[in-house]
Amino acid sequence: xxxANIHVTxxxxxxxxxxxxxxxCRELRLGVQYPGTPISQCYLSxxxxxxxxxxxxxxxxxxxxxxxxxxxFIEGLSVEYSQNRLGSEVRxxxxxxxxxxxxxxxxxxxxxxxxxxxQHVNPSLAxxxxxxxxxxxxxxxxxLKFGGNCLGCGNAxxxxxxxxxxxxxEQLPEIEAVSEVTMH
Length: 184
What we know:
By secondary structure, the protein is an alpha/beta fold. It has helices at residues 10-23, 71-74, 109-126, 156-171; strands at residues 6-8, 27-33, 41-46, 54-59, 62-67, 77-84, 87-93, 130-138, 141-148, 177-180.
């Protein structure tokens, strides 16, 4: 899947078009932080950044760009706008944001590593109310972030080396190193 079905309400479309005109930038980037994980989030930002792996959706007054590999996560995305006496907000609702299906063959290392973690590691960590996600990827080095009961756990280092790192390297041999950003 490369093109996601995205619905922008009339009010949201008008608001985003006005903001694009005000910012003198018709380009909005639709991004996903930590796709397919329990803490994933969608965001919009003004950006003139263009990439050959972008999908583009045209709207009146602006266009949305997103990486094709994110299409499964943003399928069915709804962009809504509301205003009340306290202000206004644009709300992004993505029903598939937390679902990490088998990543496409051309998926980047971060998506593939998160998929391995969710399929092979997190079910075991969840038995102890813990979890792990990819924080970032630098080249072929994967940086992980532990959560839940893994924070402060005396076995965290052992779990990282003997279970998490071993599983990632078995499943994704192109990974050269695994480290963590979590303070235990």
